[in-house]
């Protein structure tokens, strides 16, 4: 994709907390996206959202006033489907929201009350649907012999919702790892495989990519461990104390709306 553009760099763009927060656009985000398109900057929307399928994300974009094609959006469910196929895992138990199941159409799935053997137990963000019974069911499946593979659709710790900060998928994955004495395969951020796949889609090296996100650990730090420059925005889950740690972003912007001016000032010379 980079060969079709005039920009020297490509962008990986987080969604929730960067382009929008819940059902509200970040001020100036549409104008910044329009600038990216005019400048023909290759870009890919990368999200750890597992509460809705890719099709629903595209519908949300339209509602908010911008559009993207399916191949411009990379989700953990899409990455997981590919990973399962590449590793010959044909049958899986999905602990994901009902709507997200459609992104696993290529996978043979079982109902969560089934006693059938599975190759993988896939864990996504179920939010308030998590309870002891459901978490224990995932644990029981992982304790079978031979033990299925635990696949995590990301390891985001928390996110900012309407009622403040809320737990994401990582705490539940960690509980299962501890209880079942296993280590999860992570197919979403902050796993290197997720970023490698994104770079492959864009057709760029890590040195020619920039990751812009609101999570100092899962976006900026994870990208920089893969050789991708990380840009921190002060929206979404950002807190001032994030900048007091060991992770030093390549740049810090008040919001995504500031990206065009920063780009012109920093990268266009």
3D architecture notes:
Helices cover 31% and strands 20% of the residues. With 269 residues, the chain is α/β, with parallel strands linked by helices. The protein has two domains: 2-48 and 191-266, 3-Layer(aba) Sandwich (Rossmann fold); 89-186, Rossmann fold, CATH 3.40.50. It has a six-stranded parallel beta sheet. The protein is globular and about 60 Å long.
Short description:
The protein is an alpha/beta fold. It contains eight helices and 15 strands.
Low-confidence parts: 1-5
Read across the widest sheet, the strand sequence of neighbours is 5-4-1-13-14-15
In helices, the fraction of residues equals 25-40%
- CATH superfamily (homologous) name of the largest domain: HAD superfamily/HAD-like
> Over the alpha carbons, how many angstroms does the gyration radius reach?
19 Å
Total of DSSP H or I helical runs spanning 4+ residues:
8
**Named CATH architecture of the largest domain:** 3-Layer(aba) Sandwich
